[in-house]
Design goal:
two-stranded antiparallel ribbon; about 130 residues; mainly alpha
Length: about 130
Amino acid sequence: MKRSGIKGKLARLVYERDKKCRRCGRMIRLEIHHIRSVSNGGNDELDNLALLCSHCHMLAPDEPLEFYEYISVPVPPYLEALYVYMKFKHEEEDEKALLDFMKVIWEAESVWEKERRLSESDIGGD
């Protein structure tokens, strides 16, 4: 059964609190995300909701720890540029394939970022 979206006073509270995408800062194509998905025991309480743009929402994890890690890492400019280029070039041909491709790149970027942080902490610890 498909759930209806968050509406009314609760939606207004989320928009007023967050004002923009909590991941990339965009102020267009905003959607409300469940930090812990309803299917994993999440609810429609304000503290379980976050405002994300449609792109960041597609890639957002459904568990709190993963979500907070996801929004704490800035979107690399080259990744954003690549997304815009691919979207323009392929328009509506295959949005799912494009999003899958972007997710693979994002995951690779996340691994690279974690490795970079580890190496920096190793250098700082000497």
